[in-house]
Amino acid sequence: MHGLNFVSHRTLRRGTTTVASAVLLASTFALGMAAPAAAQDDASIVVVGPIEPDSLDVCESSNQAPGRIVRQNVYETLTEVSAEDGSVMPRLATSWEQIDEKTWRFHLVKNVKFTDGNPLTAEVVAYNLKRDAANPDCGMYGRAFGSLNVTGVPVDETTIDIVSDKPAPILPTNLALMAIASPEMPMETTRQSAGTGPYKITEWSPGKIVIEANPDYWGEQPTIKKVTTVFRGEDAVRAAMVAAGEADLAIDVSPENASNPETDFTYLNSETTFLRFDLRSPPLNDVRVRQAFNYAIDRDAMLGTVVIAGSLKATQLPVEGILGHNSNLEPYPYDPEKARQLLAEAKADGVPVDATIRFIVRAGNFAQVDEFSQAIAAMLQDVGLNINLEIMERSRASQFQGKPFPEDSGPYVQLIMSDNNLGDASFSVFPHYHSGGVQSMLTDSELDAEIVRASGLTGDERRAAYEEIFRKLHEDIVPNVMLFHMLAVNRVGPRLAWRPTIKANSEFDFAKMKLN
Description:
Layout: H1 19-32, E1 44-49, H2 64-70, E2 76-77, E3 79-81, E4 88-90, E5 93-100, E6 103-108, H3 122-133, H4 140-145, E7 150-156, E8 159-164, H5 171-174, E9 179-180, E10 199-205, E11 208-213, E12 226-231, H6 235-243, E13 249-250, E14 264-277, H7 287-296, H8 299-302, E15 312-313, H9 336-348, E16 356-362, H10 369-382, E17 386-392, H11 394-401, E18 412-419, H12 426-433, H13 445-455, H14 459-477, E19 480-492, E20 496-497, E21 514-515
Parallel strand pairs: 1-12, 1-13, 16-17, 16-18
Antiparallel strand pairs: 2-9, 3-4, 5-6, 6-8, 7-8, 10-11, 11-12, 13-19, 14-18, 14-19, 15-19, 20-21
Helix pairs in contact: 1-6, 7-9, 12-13, 13-14
């Protein structure tokens, strides 16, 4: 846990760390640990990221830190979704057709091999479906398929029927989340890695992960032959490494350090920040207290100070343009008097509103996360809430984020980021709000039924069903404090002919990048 001094939201201001001052810090890091490969190598690049992943297992490939390294690089998916228009495109599947409302048939690319020599077959895809279902801690199965249970039924060596227990109208889109690994991968999470992608992992040591071109790749060989990813927690250091030519791409640079319009690119990164309440514990099991949290946050004061100007105030997890987003919802206004009134009403009814509430934040979650969290804590304290801010390393914070949730933890709220760039609300709704969702604190049978019903609908009926779910969550249940649809900044060096899109939040398809 970090010891932090809270910042008054009335004095929010830009930080003072600059890229220039960080050059010395970057040099200090280089002296204290092995320096990354030179960015000047004609066929290789260096990427510097904020958080080193705990696992590179295929079932973690939809998560941000590992996904930026392995997704579509080491492990590939059957389908992928276009960042330009949201269309579903072939990857390891060449085509597909719907047999009935619960069955889709997929035809695989032929003569594809994993880097361990095993062939890609329908049996392997069926094994991956079974493996992902057996690894709920990874979250990919639940996130990809929601309330569906799916089974792979091989038709022939390169044709597979994927059968669901309920209607699955968008299954080709669902499969864009699920990556495929060799059948040699054991059922449990492993440090082994064998995919079909254009790269393979050649080094994984503390602070450094290297992937190199797979000479036996079934598709076109990448121009960039080697990608070395190193990790630095200070975003000014990451920015300085690109400025100094020590790296070609820096992930998550703060506005203070994004000083060069020639190299610093802002993009809507599909992440939504929100606070999730521990609904098991008083006082957070009282809706008036949860509403008070919402009224206590001055979102406008945060924009351009601790969050990038242009970020959008959120009312729900998906951004506008995702099917099911309800554009009629309005953010909670900043109304500290209303917050105090709600807390007083709850206290009069015996709710222990003075209890200490833990505010759990994952260190390095995004640029300026410390300042962001301090500002929120100060606002909550201003209305009389007793907030204890705890900034934790990734592994510890993750214990509070997904099931099984820790017992006897005391009441807590957690700052979470959730991304959805696949065009449909189902990828957000089930994992966060269905009682079976891996990150859901809710146990609402009526809401569960609505979520399951929505997942089987299509077109306008599907859109309307999800819009009503988001209305109910925002206005009636209030399981979250919705904060912002985030923007992010990546610094791209002059050697790399690439610009970030919404996919850059969890995927860098290095084979599609070019060097200048």
